[in-house]
Amino acid sequence: MCPNGGKGRRHPAFRTQPVATGRPTPTSEISFYLGSRMALVHPRLPGLQGHKLPEDIAAFNYSENPSTKIDVTRALIKYYENGTCKQPPLITENGVQEPPYDPEWVRVPDVGLDKIIVFLTFPSGNWIILQALEEAGIKYLELNSTFTQQKRAEIIQKFQNTPDIQVLLISNIGMTGLNLACANVIIGVDNLWSAQDTDQLIGRVWRHPQKKTVIYHPIIADKTSDAYIVAMSDDKAIMHLKLANMPIELMRTFAGDDDESGAESTPPPPP
After folding, report:
1. What angle do CA 117, 175, 47 make, to 5 degrees?
2. Residue 170: in which H helix or E strand, if any?
3. What is the pTM of this model?
4. Which residues are CB-contacts of 27 (< 8 A; sequence separation ≥ 6)?
5. 18, 88 contact by CB (below 8 A)
6. I need a labelling partner for 36 at 20 to 30 A (CA). Which of 52, 168, 220, 268 fits?
């Protein structure tokens, strides 16, 4: 586990990096990039030769066709199950484990169970994740683009007010306009292109009236496009921070406000 939390953290949410509903689109209709991203969630999603889904999806059995990313997602959910203000887990080659007790971890009294947002970029893969959750006996709700605004509001209210439903699966629909402060854990099955998008996703949870520490788990498949996307996103975030905190004199230099002699470029007032 590599949390960017505690003192000097870049974002108010803890960030840990575990490595590790509908028919899928035929391979001929998706790009290589999209296909590879979908395959990282589950190798059968893109419909590649030798890894196709059965014609009858009802015949698909997740336990016989597991995925590392989905297994890690399920293990993280199980770790937070029935817990309140839990510390981020230890994530090792042996799986998701209970960490040593940290007396400084913020434990808020009189709050409900931890609630978890599972983010997936491509909703076409939701059904596999949902089947994996059902096999593990995990209760969940889902938001997707087919729902009306009223239906979405009803689902969020049910998620907030039903103690034994701790999981809400969302896609890009959850990036703007939703207040999900009833949750405090985010699991990113897919990784986003920019740090701004990631901050926006975390911002759905880390907002008023949030009382708990928000924990973000991006699941990164090592030595794949996931690692490239996260590295590029983090590099862009560093550049933006450097530019935003640039000394005013240096900003003027880049803007061309000073001439070569260092004199002010503002013309003198008329006589």
Report:
1. 75
2. strand 167-170
3. 0.76
4. 35, 46, 47, 48, 49
5. no
6. 168
pLDDT tier, 257 (very low <50, low <70, confident <90, very high otherwise): low
Size of the chain in residues: 271
Scan for tokens 């586990």, then name that residue. 1
89: which 2 tokens? 């887990």
pLDDT band of 75, cuts 50, 70, 90: very high
Ramachandran category for residue 53: left, alpha or beta (phi over 0 → left; psi -120 to 50 → alpha): beta
Joined tokens for residue 258: 């000073």
Task: Look up residue 258 and give its DSSP letter.
Answer: B
C-alpha 82: how far from chain center: 21
Query: What would the mean pLDDT of 194-213 be, rounded to a whole number?
Result: 89
Amino acid identity at 78: K
Dist CA 238 CA 245 (whole Å)? 11
Give CA–CA dist 260/52, Å, rounded: 64
From 27, 19, 22, 28, select the one nearest 43 (Cα to Cα).
Answer: 27
Mean pLDDT of the chain: 79
End-to-end CA distance of the chain: 68
The residue behind tokens 């893109």 is 46
Are the CB atoms for 47 and 23 separated by under 8 Å? no
Cβ pair 160, 204 in contact under 8 A:
no
**CA angle at 206 for the pair 105 and 149, rounded to the nearest 5°:** 145
Lowest mean pLDDT: which of 21-35, 111-125, 192-206, 214-228?
21-35
The conformational region for residue 204 under phi > 0 = left, psi -120 to 50 = alpha, else beta, is alpha
Dmax over CA atoms of the chain, in Å, equals 88
Q: Place 248 in a pLDDT band, splitting at 50, 70 and 90.
A: confident
Q: Could you give the 3-state DSSP secondary structure of residue 98? A: coil
